[in-house]
Backbone:
């Protein structure tokens, strides 16, 4: 499983999302960007049967009917399994737009795709939000994963994993930077891992030549 990462290229080089997505949101351009990114991800899924993709969208896109219609139409006409697409939203974004997040997640499930809560564990009422938002994946916030971890971090990871398993959800740990962290996560029962130890960001063409991992 790969996570789709957006970068903007211009005459000055490559710009990371943090430098331009906020501006896009303020100027009403974020819907177009999210639709383009999701469309590109669907193209990749259709062209390569060996990969699964997660795509992070803006909180503003949670009520974007055009985005949902794009996903529905492409999944219906595509020659790939809908569950290979996972749409993710940060927990803090979902909290602010909890009704929209709930409707979005329900729609994705109806289409056969999945919904993930990114940076899970950072919100004050993280566990309570699971009653409203039917997420399929919980992405454990990197603050609890990155070394050096404390006993508190390990305990929080253990609680999230136990909760996820009891609710039949999958867990993904972010910020996995070394083998010791990966081994600790495997022992804790985490399902998937992300981070430089697993694989560094790279062009799509480069990623498709490697064995998929998450």
Residues:
């Amino acid at each position: 499983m790969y996570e789709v990462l957006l970068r903007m290229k211009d005459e000055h080089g490559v710009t990371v999302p943090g430098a331009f997505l906020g501006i896009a949101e303020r100027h009403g351009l974020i819907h177009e960007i999210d639709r383009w990114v999701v469309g590109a991800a669907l193209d990749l899924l259709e062209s390569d049967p060996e990969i699964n993709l997660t795509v992070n969208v803006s909180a503003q896109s949670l009520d974007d009917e055009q985005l949902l219609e794009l996903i529905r139409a492409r999944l219906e006409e595509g020659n790939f399994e809908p569950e290979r697409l996972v749409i993710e939203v940060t927990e803090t974004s979902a909290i602010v737009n909890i009704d929209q997040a709930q409707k979005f997640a329900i729609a994705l499930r109806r289409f056969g795709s999945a919904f993930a809560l990114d940076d899970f564990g950072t919100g004050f009422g993280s566990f309570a939000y699971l009653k409203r938002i039917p997420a399929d994946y919980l992405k454990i916030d990197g603050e609890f994963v990155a070394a050096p971890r404390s006993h508190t971090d390990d305990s929080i990871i253990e609680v999230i994993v136990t909760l996820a398993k009891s609710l039949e959800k999958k867990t993904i740990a972010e910020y996995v930077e070394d083998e010791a962290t990966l081994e600790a996560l495997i022992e804790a029962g985490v399902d998937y891992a992300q981070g430089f130890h697993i694989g560094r960001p790279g062009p799509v063409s480069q990623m498709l030549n490697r064995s998929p991992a998450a």
